[in-house]
Amino acid sequence: MLGFLKEPVVVTAEINVNLVALTVMGLITRLWGLCYPRAVVFDEVYYGQFVSLYMKRIFFVDDSGPPFGHMLLALGGYLGGFDGNFLWNRIGAEYTMNIPVWSLRLLPALAGALCVPLAYQILVELHFSHRAALGAALLLLLENSLITQSRFMLLESILIFFILLAVLSYLKFYNLQRHRPFSGSWWFWLLLTGVACACAVGVKYMGLFTYMLLLAIAGLHFWHMIGDQTLSNVSLLCHFLARGLALILIPVVMYLSFFYVHLALLYRSGPHDQIMTSAFQASLEGGLARITQGQPLEVAYGSQITLRNVLGKPVQCWLHSHTNTYPIRYENGRGSSHQQQVTCYPFKDVNNWWIVKDPGMQQLVVSNPPRPVRHGHIVQLVHGITTRYLNTHDVAAPLSPHSQEVSCYIDYNISMPAQNLWRVEIVNRESDTDVWKTILSEVRFVHVNTSAVLKASGLIGASLPEWGYRQLEVVGEKLSKGYHQSMLWNVEEHRYGKSQEQKEREVELHSPTQMDISKNLSFMAKFTELQASWKILTLKNEDTEHKYSSSALDWITMDTNIAYWLHPTSGAQIHLLGNVVTWASANAAALVYTCLSLWYLIRRRRRIYDIPEDSWQLWVSAGGVCGGGWAVNYLPFFLMEKTLFLYHYLPALTFQILLIPVVLQHLGDHLCRSVLLKSMFSALIVAWFSSVYFVYCTFSPVTYGQPALSATELKDLRWKDSWNILIRKQ
Q: Which intervals of the chain form a coiled coil (predicted)?
C-alpha cells in the first residue's frame, strides 16, 4: 500500500534560461538606483498629486484617462506607508523623509522590466527564431527612452506592459486554437487577453488602440474559421460566444469596476467638485453635501431655491439678480428695457436665491401641507432679496441681439406690461406627472407669453461689460426641440420658506438650512457623468503650449527631447532621449517591410512566388501585429488636438522595435542565400548591435542621472541641434 514511497518524488521543470536572464537584466536596468534622484521628476509633480488625493480619499478627475493607472501608483504609495502629505508644486522639489520614493516608483519599474521578456515571448509565439526573439528583447532592454520612462512614477511603462501582455496572450491563445480548443490553457490565455486589454484601457485611453487592433485580428481569424467546413455550426457559435465573453464582456465589466473602486475610495469632497453636477457634489462627504444634506426633496410653491445651470462649463454659475438695471442704451446704440439685471453668477451669493410662487396666490411661504410643483405647472420666480419677478419680453438681449432680454420686472408705468409666467418642464422626467425635485431634476423654464427658454448664454459666449460686473449673460432663447445644457437648470440649495414679511425673509435667506435626510447618487449615474467627454477630456487647458511639447512628426526622427530633471548644483540631469541607432533602425525596418510587402504583393499578383507560402503567412502575421501595432499607436496622434510629448510615441516605438528582428531574420533567410553572404550579414548584425550598446552606454548618464557630466561632456551629447541639453553657465 505504501509502495510508492520506495522511490523519491521527483518534479521536473523546463526553465528557459533566455527568459530568466532577460528578466534579471530587465530588473537590473530598471531598478538600479531607483530612489535617485530623491526629488520630483517631470510628471511626478502631476501624478503625485493624485496619489496624495487617493491617500486622503479626496475626489478628483484626471483628463489623461481612466483611474486604474492612478490606483496602481497609489497602491505603491499605500504599500510604502505614504500618508499623502507632500506639496507637489514644482519639478525638482526634494522629497521629504515621509515619501517612500522606492515604493512609489516600484510598480512602473517592474512593468518596464517585464516588457523585456514579454517581447522575447511575442517573437517566439509569432514563430520566429529564438535568436530573433532574443534580439527584440535586448533592443528593448537597451532602449534609453523606455528605461527613463519606467524608472519614475509615470504610467507609460505600465501601459506598454499591459499592451504587450495582451498581444502575447492572444498569440498564445491563437496558437492553441488548432490543437487544443476549449482546453484549460486555451481559456486561460483567451481570458487573460481580455483582462490585459481592459487594464491597458484602464491605465490610459491610448490602450484602446491596441485593443481595437486585437479585436480586428480576432475578427479576421474568426472569419477564416467560418470558412472551415470541419467545424459545425454549434462549434462556431461556441467559439463566437467565448470570444465575445473574453474580449468584450469582461473588458467592459472590468472597465466599470475600475471606476467603481475609484469612486468607492474617493468619497470626500475635492478640488474638482465644481465641474460635477449638484447631485454628484451632494453625494460626496463635505463640500456641497454639508449644505444640501437633508434639504426638502420636492420643490413646492413657496420654496426658496438657488438654480444652478447644468452646463457648468467653463465655470459653474447660478441664476442671479441684483438691484442694478440694464443701461438705457448700450455702447452700440441699441436700447434696453432699463429693467433690473438678471445674470448667471459663478459664485454662491445671497442674490442667487429665488422664491417659487403660485401665480394665483400672493403668499411667498410654503403651505401646510406643501403643494409640490410638477412638470408642466406654471410658476413665477420671485427674486428673494429684491422681490421682483423674473421676466422676459420682446427686447433684444445685451450681447445676443437675436435672443430676448431677461430681467426682473420694474413697473415704470409705461406701456411695457409684466410678462413673468414660466412653465416648468422636467427634461429627465419619468412621467408627465413627475414632481420637481431638488438636485435630481433637470428643468427648463419656458416663457408662457413668448415660448422663449431661459438660457445661460454667457457660458458659451462673452461676459457682460463693466455695467454687468463681468457676470454671464442670461437670455430668453426661442423654443428649441433640443435640450442644450445651457438651457437646463437644477435646484441646488432649497428650503421651505416660512416668512411672509420681507425683512424676516431676508434673514431667512442669509441663514443655512440643515435637516436629517441625505440623498445618494447611484454608481451608474456617477459613472455616466464621469464619462462625459467635456469633463474627462477638457479638465486641463490643452491650448497652452508646453516648453517640451512636440508634434507627431518630430517623434520618428527623435528631433525632440524632454528634460526630466536637473540637479540644483551639479551638471547631473535626466532626459527622455532614445537610443539613436535603435530609432533609426526601427524606421529602416518599417520602410524595408513596407517596400518588400508591396514587392511581394505585386509579384504574387503576377503569380510569381518569391518565398514559400508558410514564410509569406509568417511575414504577414508579423506585420499585422508589429507594423499594425506601430500604426494604430502612432497615426491617431495626427488627428488629436491636444498637447503632445515625446513619451506618447513610446507604445508605437515598442511595436516598431519588434519589427527589426522580423525584418533581419527575413533578410537572412531569404535574401542571403550563399554562405559568404550569410557570414557577412551576421557580422554586420554584430557590428550594428555593438553600436546599439555603445549608444546606450554613451547616453546612460542622462538616462539614470548619474554620474554628473561636465559642460563639455554635455555638449558632446547634443547630437542634434534640436535637442535641449541643459548646460549651466560657468
A: none
> N- to C-terminal Cα distance for the chain?
86
Helices and strands per DSSP (H, E), number in the chain:
23, 15
Confidence of residue 383 (pLDDT cuts 50, 70, 90): very high
pLDDT tens digit sequence for 316-332: 889 999 999 999 888 88
- Interacting residues of 88 by C-beta distance below 8 A, sequence separation 6+: 40, 44, 45, 46, 48, 49, 52
Q: Is 491 helix (H, G, I), strand (E, B) or coil?
A: strand
Reading the block at residue 470, the C-alpha cell is 463681468
CA atoms within 13 A on the CB side of 439: 24
**Three cell numbers, residue 109:** 519599474
User: Which parts of 7-129 fold into alpha helices (H)?
Assistant: 17-31, 44-56, 68-79, 101-125
Report the alpha-carbon distance of residue 174 to residue 126 in Å, rounded. 10
d(CA 151, CA 106): 8
Q: Where are the alpha helices (DSSP H) in 388-545?
A: 502-510, 523-531, 533-536
Please state the separation of Cα 40 from the chain's center in Å.
22
Spatial contact of 51 and 104, defined as CB atoms under 8 Å apart: yes
Query: In 337-410, at which residue ranges do the beta strands (DSSP E only) sit?
Result: 340-345, 353-357, 378-383, 390-396, 404-408
Strands 452-455, 340-345: parallel, antiparallel or unpaired by DSSP? unpaired
Residue 511: pLDDT above 90?
Answer: no
- Nearest C-alpha neighbor of 137 from the set 26, 244, 285: 26
- Within 10 Å of residue 281's Cβ, how many Cβ atoms? 25
Most confident of 236-245, 272-281, 506-515: 236-245
Task: Calculate the dihedral angle through the C-alpha atoms of 427, 429, 432, 437, rounding to the nearest 10 degrees.
Answer: -100
Categorize the per-residue pLDDT at 600 as very low, low, confident or very high, splitting at 50, 70 and 90: very high
Contact 55, 71 (CB under 8 A): no
CB 328 within 8 A of CB 334: no
Burial class (CB in 10 A: 0-12, 13-18, 19+), 652: buried
Nine-digit cell at 268?
Answer: 470626500
Q: Does an H or E element contain 173, and which?
A: helix 156-177
Instruction: Spell out the alpha helix ranges (H) of 573-649.
Output: 580-605, 613-622, 628-634
For residue 192, count other CB atoms closer than 10 A to its CB: 19
pLDDT at 416: 79
Which amino acid would we find at residue 659?
L
By the 10 Å C-beta count (0-12 exposed, 13-18 middle, 19+ buried), 421 is classed as middle
Strands (DSSP E) found in 390-512: 390-396, 404-408, 422-426, 443-447, 452-455, 472-473, 475-478, 489-496
CA 134/CA 18 separation, integer angstroms: 8
Q: CB within 8 A of 192, min separation 6: which ones?
A: 165, 169
- The answer as to CATH 2.160.10.10 being correct for domain 290-497+527-537 is no
Confidence at 79, pLDDT banded by 50, 70, 90: very high
Are the C-beta atoms of residues 489 and 509 closer than 8 Å to each other? no
Could you give the CA distance from residue 193 to residue 243 in angstroms, rounded to a whole number? 10
Residues 538 and 529: their CA atoms lie apart, in Å, by 14
pLDDT tens-digit profile of 194-209?
999 999 999 999 999 9
Residues carrying CATH 2.80.10.50, the chain: 290-497+527-537
- Whole-angstrom distance, CA of residue 481 vs CA of residue 490: 19
67 is written with which cell numbers?
A: 483611474
Q: How many CB atoms lie within 10 A of CB 575?
A: 26
Q: Are 74 and 55 in contact (CB under 8 A)?
A: yes
Residue 71's Cβ-side half-sphere holds a number of Cα atoms within 13 Å equal to 19
